[in-house]
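Narrative of activities, Objective 1.

The group set out to show that a structural description can be obtained from nothing but a protein's sequence at a throughput compatible with the screening campaign. Below is one input-output pair from the validation batch, recorded exactly as produced.
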Amino acid sequence: MEFITLNNGVKMPLEGFGVFQVPDPAECEQSVLDAINSGYRLIDTAAAYMNEEAVGAAIAKCGVPREELFITTKLWVQDAGYEEAKKAFQVSLDKLGLDYLDLYLIHQPMGNYVSAYRAMEELYREGKIRAIGVCNFYPERLADLCETADVIPAVNQVELHPFFQQENALSVMKEYGVVPEAWGPFAEGKFGIFTHPVLTGIGEKYGKSAAQVALRWNIQRGVVVIPKSVHKERIEQNIDVWDFALSDEDMAAIAALDLGHSEIVDHRDPGFVRMLHGLKIHE
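Output recorded for this entry:
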């Protein structure tokens, strides 16, 4: 495993394990255990995934020292506010069974996220979080936060895969020293990504799958990836990306796949914004 150094000096694994859409407690716990046993040390969850307790159970059972793990969770829209964020952070910490987080992210750039970020800055200064950041902050939102925050976000987790490459967003992140992290590195299975001829053709040169090529491509762009699977064989395959490197020709061929827009979500759609605000994760 290779690491990237965040803007505060904390080292973060370049690959982790995501648990989005794994709500079943037993399945989530087992998949996290399989991931840790396969060598993953970064585990990415969120309050809105409704599986923090299952992740915590796996952490407690895994036998790996806490300091070797890098645990991330996220603040949901419903709790975007100063006091609300403080409370939500503690709820997540308790569910995970931890006394600190490695990374805490604002899940969506909606609601009173500015006040929530101020609360997170305080928790960071108190040593309860090793690094703080955001998710889904498009370039203008990220620039605005960076220009006003006391603590520059360490990470911005956004949609990044061969069909939505966001080079402009990566450029703005680099300008502010924010590390990009890819959610949906497999495009949630769209575009025939696992059998795409460009990706499979490149993979054949290295004895790798299209999925492994897609992960390696992002990693070589300096992007942290958090693939998700509940199948042990695929979990093991997804971390087997450290023994090969894509050529400049390979990278250029994948760059040509970019559609320039997302076909998964549109954060600028008022209907989508209303849906996120309406999604309540607690009373």
